[in-house]
Amino acid sequence: MTEQPPKTGRRKLLKSAAVGAGALSVPMISTAQTTTLRFQSTWPAKDIFHEFAQDYAKKVNEMAGNRLKIEVLPAGAVVPAFQLLDAVSKGTLDGGHGVVAYWYGKNQAVALWGSGPAFGMDANMVLAWHNYGGGKELLDEVYKSLNLDVVSKLYGPMPTQPLGWFKKPVAKVEDLKGLKFRTVGLAVDIFTELGCAVNPLPGGEIVPALDRGLLDAAEFNNASSDRVLGFPDVAKNCMLQSFHQASEQFEILFNKTKYDALPAELKSIIDYATQAASADMSWKAADRYAKDYAEMASQQGVKFYKTPDAILRAQLAAWDKVTTKKSAENPMFKKVFESMRVFAQRSGRWQNDTTVDYRMAWNHYFAPKKT
């Protein structure tokens, strides 16, 4: 006969089992503290670029739950736009949103990520070079050589930027000579080579300068930004297509000390949020830029002109002079320039050989039919 355990012991055993089972059904409550990072963009609060910065932060914040929160302030909230890089490096800000070309004064090599024709690569292809062709490592090398305590993440390929806004349209290269013109980065050197008197003003200062006659012409970036900044109020002629900034992208900056202190899973969230934001920014831009482009023409009397091929060819010739000079003066510039060239020669050929002429299809469906 099998001996039974005492009743009290059995009840104690069942009670312990019940407690154990109940413990498994109770959800664990995270006690992790929220890490808050204070960012600033280089854009006015009303600019779509600042909206892109906020979109990026929203993706990170939602993916990270309550473990990480990025707060984004507009340009000038803590430091002027062109002082963002130093502020992030010093820890005055935990991060920021801008473009690499703004740090042209630190080392002119960085402007290669945003200025010039990029050997015929569009902005998405430049990001391909950056991520898979050695560009990222070169940018990290530049920042390290400048003793900048930052982590840089590029994303958001920008559509080709206009030549700019003019009081009257330009028809030939000679029309550029003597013009007081606004641009930034290595585009400063291109337009200087073309005979312009260049002033690299931040975005928020351009339209007032145009209005007061301190500038004759200026470029910023795109239909939505240009419209909200007020370009159509001070100039009615916009020249489309240019090689001065044909392949630019955005930069997310983190203070390296703050970034390195984050756990690996939060760093992964930041990486994947950057990739997601890159795609989303492209889609939003295609929608919003097209709307503002159409409304400026239909509601604000803006006339859009294609930049003449003669000016585009002159830009390429000017770029060759500028980059030859910079490569001779700056070993890092030459290193970046040659890396980009190697990638473009291989990948650009593939892109050009395989990409269909989309304009043909658009014309087929929408261009006025000849009678």
Explain how this protein is built.
With 371 residues, the chain is α/β, with parallel strands linked by helices. It has a domain at 35-158 and 247-288: 3-Layer(aba) Sandwich (D-Maltodextrin-Binding Protein, domain 2), CATH 3.40.190. It has helices at 7-25, 48-64, 84-90, 123-132, 135-145, 187-193, 203-211, 223-229, 231-234, 256-260, 264-299, 309-329, 331-354, 358-366, and strands at 35-41, 68-73, 95-98, 150-157, 164-166, 180-182, 197-198, 217-218, 237-240, 249-255, 303-306. Helix 2 (48-64) runs antiparallel to helix 11 (264-299), helix 5 (135-145) packs antiparallel against helix 13 and helix 12 packs antiparallel against helix 13. The longest helix has 36 residues, at 264-299. It is globular and about 70 Å long. The N and C termini lie far apart (108 Å). The model is unreliable at 1-31 (pLDDT under 50).
Key terms for this structure?
single chain; 371 residues; D-Maltodextrin-Binding Protein, domain 2; 6-stranded mixed sheet; 5-stranded mixed sheet; 14 helices
Secondary structure elements and their pairing?
Blueprint: H1 7-25, E1 35-41, H2 48-64, E2 68-73, H3 84-90, E3 95-98, H4 123-132, H5 135-145, E4 150-157, E5 164-166, E6 180-182, H6 187-193, E7 197-198, H7 203-211, E8 217-218, H8 223-229, H9 231-234, E9 237-240, E10 249-255, H10 256-260, H11 264-299, E11 303-306, H12 309-329, H13 331-354, H14 358-366
Parallel strand pairs: 1-2, 1-3, 6-7, 6-8, 9-11
Antiparallel strand pairs: 3-10, 4-10, 5-8, 5-9
Helix pairs in contact: 2-11, 5-13, 6-12, 12-13
